[in-house]
TrEMBL record:
The chain crosses the membrane at residues 23-45. The keyword Oxidoreductase does not apply. Keywords: Membrane, Transmembrane, Transmembrane helix. InterPro entries: Nod_factor_sulfotransferase, P-loop_NTPase. Gene3D superfamilies: P-loop containing nucleotide triphosphate hydrolases. Residues 188-207 are annotated as: Disordered. This is PROTEIN putative EXPRESSED-RELATED. The keyword Transmembrane helix applies. It comes from Salix purpurea (Purple osier willow).
Length: 398
């Protein structure tokens, strides 16, 4: 141990021992080191326990969704990379494409809805392609037509060609096509038109302006003979629903159901459009859709006559068609839309774009609504046709 030597003078020397380190200071340093060690250990243990919990949660089994959950919210749309035969997709060859089909009924807003979709820069909705008989005469012709559409080999004014991100068409659920043959030669084909009158199994044809219009009928036969003519009924999507649903599931086609809540307004629109097909109120031209208020007001002047004897049964028939369609295609990836909801809530269009996996854009249409205002002012109902059993009530309101 070192010693301190103090020299006072020449004759005296005092030797002092060195000072000892205080024990208290040593204890403080030791205690501080212990506290730091305990803190560090606790932090490390907490991190290890957190990681363990996360791993357990990652492998936790999630319950199956109940049957009431909408399928469209659970399923992801399939993407495709078609290789068309009629052109090359060029720089868009690696861009995915989604397939869709709009399933609706006449005068339910499908034409307006399709113009909205086609205003999107990446959408090609090709219209009512199955209005032509040869494309739907049997399931083989139907699938052949579908293959062309989804392979991007179908060309219309709506085709975006190379850079389509979604491609489809619209299909009318209640469209039955008749065509007429005499001596084996096809003369013409046109949609079945329903007229007010008593239901008969074989109602005679009436020739108007060189064309034959079939009355309101309920045929289940495929064909029959009348006055030397062979009348053939060709049904499409509802007739071959099983094969078409299988095709949709196999090819990854998403179904967009578009219906109308107010079936009375739909009926008025159907009757008015059928009348204008022959009357041609717009300068001798028939238009199912218009782009100006003047044209809309001209068409709205016609008030169709409603036969209340058949009114409820006709409305029920439309309801049954929609219900059956949803049942037939329940296994497909689908979404259900209503015309009135699209009118009142523009955000529904964003839901449609999300359903198709599209970048959201503002969709627009030039079409103008024809029948506005109170429905009672748009129709004529003979007073003698009303009784306690036929007056619309409940969900069918004027």
């Amino acid at each position: 141990m070192a010693e301190y030597i103090c020299v006072l003078n020449k004759d005296s020397i005092i030797i002092k021992p060195a000072k000892k380190t205080p024990i208290l200071l040593r204890m403080i340093v030791l205690l501080f080191a212990m506290v730091c060690g305990v803190y560090i250990c606790s932090v490390c243990l907490k991190q290890i326990s957190t990681n363990s919990k996360i791993k357990i949660q990652d492998i936790q089994v999630i319950e199956r969704p109940s049957p009431d959950v909408d399928h469209e919210n659970l399923q992801i749309s399939s993407v495709h990379y078609p290789n068309p035969e009629t052109f090359t997709r060029a720089e868009c060859v690696h861009n995915p494409v989604r397939y869709f089909a709009i399933l609706s009924m006449q005068r339910s807003g499908s034409g307006w809805f399709e113009t909205l979709l086609n205003s999107h820069v990446n959408v090609s909705s090709n219209g009512e392609i199955f209005s032509v008989l040869e494309r739907r005469i049997n399931i083989s012709s139907i699938t052949e037509t579908l293959d062309k559409v989804y392979n991007l080999d179908w060309f219309t004014s709506a085709s975006k060609n190379e850079c389509s991100a979604a491609v489809g068409f619209k299909w009318m659920l209640n469209q039955d096509i008749w065509y007429y043959k005499q001596n084996g030669k096809k003369e013409q084909h046109q949609p079945l038109e329903k007229q007010n009158g008593k239901k008969e199994e074989h109602q005679p044809l009436e020739k108007q302006n060189g064309k034959y219009n079939c009355g309101k009928v309920a045929f289940s036969v495929v064909s029959f003979l009348f006055d030397g003519y062979q009348l053939v009924l060709i049904r499409g999507v509802m007739k071959h629903h099983k094969e078409i649903a299988d095709y949709f599931n196999h090819r990854g086609v998403s179904a967009i159901f578009l219906f109308r809540r107010n079936l009375l307004r739909r009926m008025v629109s159907v009757l008015a459009n059928s009348y204008d097909r022959h009357a041609k109120l717009l300068n001798g031209t028939h238009k199912s859709h218009v782009h100006s208020t003047e044209e809309a007001e001209t068409l709205a002047k016609y008030k169709p006559m409603i036969n209340s004897t058949l009114l409820i049964s006709d409305l029920k028939e439309a309801e049954i068609t929609a219900t059956k369609a949803l049942e037939y295609f329940n296994s497909t990836r689908h979404i259900v839309l209503y015309y009135e909801d699209l009118i009142k809530n523009p955000t529904k269009l964003k839901d449609v774009q999300a359903f198709l996996g599209l970048p959201v854009m503002d969709l627009t249409s030039r079409q103008v609504k024809i029948h506005k205002g109170s429905l009672a002012d748009k129709v004529v109902v003979p007073l003698k046709s009303f009784d306690n059993h036929t007056t619309p009530r409940g969900q069918y309101k004027w």
